[in-house]
Amino acid sequence: MNRLSRSSNIKWQLLSYFLAALAIVTGGMGAGWLLWRDALSDNNIWVEYVLLLVASGIAICYMIVTRYQRKIDTLHLAILQLASGNLGERIRPLGMDPFDRIYNDFNVMASSLEKRVKLLQKVGEENVMLQAESNEAAVIEERKRLARDLHDTVSQQMFAIHMSASSLAKMVQRGQTESVAPILEQLVTMSNLTQKQLRGMIAQLRPIELEGKRLSEALDKWFPDYCRQNGLQGSIDIRLDGPLSDGIEHQLFLIVQEGMANVVKHASARHVELALHDNGNQYVLQMNDDGQGFSSDSIRMNSYGLSTMRERAQKLGGEMDIWSKSGAGTRIKISIPKFMDEDESGGGQSETEQEQTE
Length: 358
Prior knowledge:
Elements: H1 2-35, H2 37-43, H3 46-83, H4 98-174, H5 180-205, H6 215-229, E1 233-239, H7 246-267, E2 271-278, E3 282-289, H8 304-315, E4 319-324, E5 330-337, H9 351-357
Helix pairs in contact: 1-3, 1-4, 3-4, 4-5, 5-7, 6-7, 7-8
């Protein structure tokens, strides 16, 4: 109601200006007819007189329009300043003018917008700090995981190699040459296994290079290299209807890395299959190996690798399912829901809503 009264004030002011201009023109015509009719007729300048009155009316209207145009231009420039990020822009009231109320409304809106943007900036800064703390915690956790992996695998293997090499030296000194060959064979086997485990860890520590590449391109390069480095035969099948979001691609790549690391460390597999399909309403990632597998009763979801993969899937709103059997390999399936964009789903408006809008 208040806004309507403000616009009415402006309309009434405009109307009063134009009525005044009309009164000047008509008044001039009446005065000419009553006071100077004979003089205008004798000199034959009625046409010039009328044109002068019309020109005066046009000049008055032009001045009125110019005055209002300046006020509108002031408001327009302030809006442009606000849109360009100058949130401190304000309009000085003219004083006893209907536009003052519009200017005051603009100033109130600009102040409110400035306060909200300041709040968003503060929240953004807090999020940056929280993200930095989270990244630091993630680095610490990754170091702990790497320390555990080194202790559980490479450290134990190196200790076994050291013990075998020490016993081998003593056997040579004692002349027990008949027992040397089995120990040498054992040393070669353990050193090969240690080298394989180290390669797997180094591959995990390499930076993930997804920038400038889609997930399918990155996997086409990374997966065969990883399989070759770890003595695996790998097959890959990627069928996607379109590009995935950066967040989904990043998490899926990390899941694949973690899953392949588990295969190298625990499965003793010879062949690995990797598939990523788009079935319309889900993205399905599947990893199969022909390794030693494990009993379904012994699935340890509290283990770092499997729990990390499940957490990454859940961050995307998905789930992870595991099928395994001792001596028959393992199959891991990750299902991520797929959401259609508004333009793909009919603009995000149902027929009923469209009818109601119409």
